Amino acid sequence: MIGVDTQLLALLTAGALIIVGLFAAILIDNLIKKIVGLSFIEEGVNLFIICLGYKEGGVVPIFLPGMDSNWFALNSAYPLPQALVLTSIVIGASTLAVMLALAMVLYKKYGSLSTSKILNHKTDMGDEE
Predict the structure, then answer these.
(1) Is 63:72 a contact under the CB 8 Å cutoff?
(2) What is the pLDDT of residues 47-84, one digit of tens each?
(3) What are the residues whose beta carbons fall under 8 Å from the beta carbon of 41, sequence distance 6 or more?
């Protein structure tokens, strides 16, 4: 892998995370595995956003005393993707906690984490026949 661009590898990894997450969220029956798949999608999108802000040879976007402002503007990495990803990580951790709490409630109510069993449980959905 010598000579392969770091940004290209990160973009391919982001795409792989998103594809694996979509596969898990759509095709796997277990609720916990679906939640992990959604987390993979989130991390893949975060990695993609970070790749957009990557600059070859860029410096940390903190303007220090004594720096030339023109040099800093040309060489600093773009800070907006970093801020967006930090916000996304916090929001993702919160939503992951809520999804796992809902999975615990569903398991206590239905005794299973299988989405097909939960959706086909007719007595709690009002379709009593």
Answers:
(1) yes
(2) 999 988 887 788 888 888 888 989 888 888 888 998 99
(3) 17, 18, 21, 22, 25
Is the CB of residue 37 less than 8 Å from the CB of residue 99?
Answer: no
Distances in Å between the Cα of 79 and the Cα atoms of 10, 22, 53, 54, 90 are 18, 29, 7, 9, 17
pTM as predicted: 0.81
Residue labelled with tokens 């998103």 = 18
Residues in the chain: 129
Q: Which residue has the tokens 């206590």?
A: 108
Rounded (10°) CA dihedral 67, 65, 85, 5:
30
Between CA 8 and CA 123 the distance in angstroms is 51
Residue 123 scores a pLDDT above 60:
no
Higher-confidence residue of 44 and 71: namely 44
* Nearest-angstrom CA–CA distance, 125 and 8: 48
Mean residue pLDDT of the chain comes to 89
The Cα 51–Cα 34 span in angstroms is 26
